[in-house]
Fold this sequence. Notes:
heterodimer, A: 7 helices, about 0% strand, globular, B: mainly alpha
Amino acid sequence: xxxxxxxxxxxxxxxxxxxxxxxxxxxxxxxxxxxxxxxxxxxxxxxxxxxxxxxxxxxxxxxxxxxxxxxxxxxxxxxxxxxxxxxxxxxxxxxxxxxxxxxxxxxxxxxxxxxxxxxxxxxxxxxxxxxxxxxxxxxxxxxxxxxxxxxxxxxxxxxxxxxxxxxxxxxxxxxxxxxxxxxxxxx
Amino acid sequence: xxxxxxxxxxxxxxxxxxxxxxxxxxxxxxxxxxxxxxxxxxxxxxxxxxxxxxxxxxxxxxxxxxxxxxxxxxxxxxxxxxxxxxxxxxxxxxxxxxxxxxxxxxxxxxxxxxxxxxxxxxxxxxxxxxxxxxxxxxxxxxxxxxxxxxxxxxxxxxxxxxxxxxxxxxxxxxxxxxxxxxxxxxxxxxxxxxxxxxxxxx
Lengths: 187, 202
């Protein structure tokens, strides 16, 4: 029981202090579960990193679940995940409340007016890095554009047509998975 | 704003799912759950998919609120996708909406990873699993690109120089110079605070 409370508390702290997306949480998790408590080894931690990257779902939640499972089985996974999201829940609801109350102030509106185009840009960047990843298998701008994966291009094009035809997002994801499997088996 | 509301009404009328009803919560849970379950990657990947579903398909929330929430989710500590789903849920239908979306966001990875933790090697090196994941990644790519282009299109249609400059600057900084999104958001917030307080930018 004790370990579960400790696990919850440690992941609460991680959830409170990690700012800036999924990867940013990994050093915090490492500091707590590898360096401080020696709950898991560094090798296991690298495994967690790899698996969190390649499995569906937010990276932080994946890592929390994996660490929790390693330390205290399924209850550990649940406790670690809940700990991770508790600060988020409190902070997000608090900010929503504050926005409702003070959202009409020109200072807040101005700030959001600056943030909206930024988010548009960041979504485009995410889209491009996903193209790099799907077609050239690299996370940054490809160094050799000639070395591309034709399967990736085919699936993206089919999916683009599906998007234009207003196919539902979920059907589209499943369909792409199936086409990926079929193309991989044929080619 | 009025035009947007009209569009929302039209979209909602088309699919006829009114926020707050039991059917709404079920559809909300189902779509969030499936998107969370089959999307590889962080917040900037999941949010465009959620946006496509909630804004474009169902019209439960508008573009502007979604972008605001994304920016705030990025700036707050914690997992961006979770932050965004909490606030999107709240915006669409209050505390109950939040509970539905947060549960639907964290349950799939919880289930998937618990299973995978026991079969790690089998999963990590399975060729067929890799092919399917890769295919889904390409599908997600298409959706993100579509959402991105749509938003860019709307941004340029407004013909306001500063917001366009912010978008271009942020794009170049994050793509070419790998500047951490946190810093981009911080700088753009300050620019907005100082220069974009005129109501025409709202």
